[in-house]
Amino acid sequence: MGLFSFLSGNKSNKIQEFKERGAIIIDVRTVNEWNGGHIKGAKHIPLQEISAKISEIKKWNKPVITYCASGGRSGSAARTLEKQGIEAINGGGWKSLQQKLQR
């Protein structure tokens, strides 16, 4: 098992843990990307709007899983949320996250 396999497995475990704790899933992609398909039950908050929605997200009082197309924007969103005291994890790309959530 390589280093990246280990890290990937660890991320899957963290995603499952968040899921079991009732995590809110946030899609940070554009409206056009969202309209092209998304994870059922996810909330759509484009990356540019995350900072403006911090107080609303805090009120949910739940951990957050962010996702986008490949993981770059969702990583940025997760870091922004963490800096504001919200427990968040980067779920990566939406299709791979969808598979992990179905386990």
UniProtKB/TrEMBL annotation:
Instruction: Fetch the Pfam families from UniProt.
Output: Rhodanese
- Rhodanese domain residues: 19-103
Q: Which SMART domains match?
A: RHOD (SM00450)
PANTHER family linked: FAD-DEPENDENT OXIDOREDUCTASE, PYRIDINE NUCLEOTIDE-DISULPHIDE OXIDOREDUCTASE
Its name, as the record gives it, is Rhodanese-like domain-containing protein
Q: Which organism is it from?
A: Rasiella rasia
